Automatic annotation (TrEMBL):
Residues 1-28, 41-79, 91-112 are annotated as: Disordered. It comes from the Eukaryota. Belongs to the peptidase S1C family. This is Protease Do-like 9 isoform X5. Residues 98-110 have a biased composition (Gly residues). GO terms for biological process: proteolysis. The gene is LOC111289801.
Length: 570
């Protein structure tokens, strides 16, 4: 009983060792929580905490502190640290890369691509593309703009070739590529540029570049909700970057660079500047597309677009077949939906017939010889066209019938069934690439121009409008030019829209200096078909006066005999 009494007074300085070490959780050691195998060492992080836990320095004098009671299942002692720091690195969906942090979906970004120290070859096939651009000055066509540099992504395919985006090497002066983990940039040669599909093909002559590089294998067109992983070299760092997501949508998309509409994939993985040209892999490690553009708007986030494998294979096979890029053919017609029942009745369509009405036919297209306005196009290559212009695509999906046309090559033939005056007609039409009155791009060529007496004549194109009126040229350009851009069709294969770009002030052209971006309709009473015909008519003119008939009923006349004029055409 005496021993059971607790004695009052000060505790002994040296406690009983058996009592001090005894604890309900004595089977759990602090060193197990802070084990080196469970914690990744973060650079620039001090190790004073672990040093204090293992120090053997003498305990200071004074009353000893009570040890805290530990629970049966202790939580991490540093909950403020991110979970990834205290957990093993997690793997991205396609199994091609692992990394610490953000591995799931919805555009989470990861870094690294090793599994157990093994580097996956698909990642090594992704290269960084460096390009020096020298753009022409469309407003001053005899000059070029200051050169600038850019970097983007690309990847190796079979046949010692590299694929990237066309806009990545637009107006290129020099192109270099660098492999992952290398410090050497290799000079690259541009083999083909597909402006419409925004794909470019490169090659490298140096054999050293191809050592140890395995080409990327292409996979099938993915389905909705399939996992995709975009690999490239975007802004924010110099090393390779991986973003993951899923396929959100598959439909005909507008390709901004080529001003065309082709099949495309919408994904929710982040695609930033520099990702252009990088591959998108599926969960099997096969390439299912090329990252090329994204939607930037305050109301949306994580909407990126990928060029799918059917478009990529079309580009590659076109180059292999013709040793050059020939483009995607289109059907040279404008059509109207037939969803209104009264319209279908007026066009003598039966209840079981579906199709679209042809509004206009391009006079320069091969179809102009057989198709007519108000024809009802019922099918294309045996595939029935619905009243809204769609065709069956995959199970539960429909897509615009232009997808069928884009699967063809220039020069191929297609069977078209039309309804004309209650009679069904079948035609076999040869497809060709489309030519617009105002071209969407110059395919890398410098602009043409002709100068005489200070008058600068040039050809209208979308790059020219962008140079004159900025990126909002669709709102800032003159209405007549925009009307021709959107609705006019060329009447002959060589027709061009020639304008007086500006008048360089001189004594000979006093009073004409306010003429800007005005179309030239005729010269000395003869219609102007294109810039070359205008230059030839001026150079071969024997009349006393040079008379230019411009739109808005304007007229510019120069006295040829007095000034002895001569022009310059490039």
């Amino acid at each position: 009983m005496e021993d059971a009494k607790r004695k009052r007074g000060r505790k002994p300085k040296v406690p009983n060792p058996s009592e001090a070490l005894e604890s309900p959780s004595s089977n759990i050691a602090l060193d197990d929580v802070f084990s080196v195998s469970n914690v990744e060492i973060i650079p620039s992080t001090t190790t004073s905490t672990s040093a204090a836990a293992t120090t053997t320095a003498a305990r200071p004098r004074g009353r000893p502190k009570k040890l805290p009671k530990l629970p049966e299942n202790p939580e991490p002692l540093h909950p403020q640290l991110p979970p990834a720091i205290l957990s093993p690195s997690r793997r991205i969906p396609n199994g091609n890369a692992t990394g610490v942090g953000g591995g799931g979906g919805g555009g989470g970004e990861l870094s690294g691509d090793s599994v157990g120290g093994r580097v996956l070859p698909a990642m090594d096939a992704v290269v960084k593309v460096f390009c020096v651009h020298t753009e022409p000055n469309f407003s001053l066509p005899w000059q070029r703009k200051r050169q600038y540099s850019s970097s983007s992504s690309g990847f190796v395919i079979g046949g010692r070739r590299v694929l990237t985006n066309a806009h990545s090497v637009e107006h290129y002066t020099q192109v270099k590529v660098k492999k992952r983990g290398s410090d050497t940039k290799y000079l690259a040669t541009v083999l083909a540029i597909g402006t419409e599909c925004d794909i470019a093909m490169l090659t490298v002559n140096d054999d050293e570049f191809w050592e140890g590089v395995s080409p990327v294998e292409f996979g099938e067109l993915p389905a909705l909700q399939d996992a995709v992983t975009v690999v490239g070299y975007p802004i924010g760092g110099d090393t390779i970057s991986v973003t993951s997501g899923v396929v959100s949508r598959i439909e005909i998309l507008s390709y901004v660079h080529g001003s065309t509409e082709l099949l495309g994939l919408q994904i929710d993985a982040a695609i930033n500047s520099g990702n252009s040209g990088g591959p998108a892999f599926n969960d099997k490690g096969s390439c299912v597309g090329i990252a090329f553009q994204s939607l930037k708007h305050e109301d949306v986030e994580n909407i990126g677009y990928v060029i799918p494998t059917p478009v990529i294979q079309h580009f590659i096979q076109d180059y292999e077949k013709n040793e050059a890029y020939t483009g995607f053919p289109i059907l040279g017609v404008e059509w109207q939906k037939m969803e209104n029942p009264d319209l279908r009745t007026a066009m003598s369509m039966k209840p079981d017939q579906k199709g679209v009405r042809i509004r206009r036919v391009d006079p320069t297209a091969p179809e102009s010889g057989v198709l007519k306005s108000s024809d009802i196009m019922l099918s294309f290559d045996g595939v029935d066209i619905a009243n809204d212009g769609t065709v069956p695509f995959r199970h539960g999906e429909r897509i615009g019938f232009s997808y069928l046309v884009s699967q063809k090559y220039s020069g191929d033939s297609s069977a078209i069934k039309v309804l004309r005056d209650s009679e069904i007609l079948n035609f076999n039409i040869k497809l060709a690439s489309h030519r617009r009155l105002i071209p969407a791009h110059n395919k890398g060529r410098p602009p043409s121009y002709y100068i005489i007496a200070g008058f600068v004549f040039t050809i209208v194109s979308v790059p020219y409008l962008r140079s004159e009126y900025g990126k909002d040229y669709e709102y800032e350009a003159p209405v007549k030019l925009l009307d021709k851009l959107l609705h006019s069709m060329p009447q002959s294969p060589d027709e061009q829209l020639v304008v007086v770009s500006q008048v360089l002030v001189s004594d000979i052209n006093i009073g004409y200096e306010d003429i800007v971006n005005t179309q030239v309709l005729a010269f000395n009473g003869k219609l102007v078909k294109n810039l070359k015909s205008l230059a030839e008519m001026v150079e071969n003119c024997d009349d006393e006066f040079l008379k230019f008939d411009l739109e808005y009923e304007q007229e510019a006349t120069l006295y040829f005999a007095e000034w002895g004029l001569s022009g310059k055409c490039l």
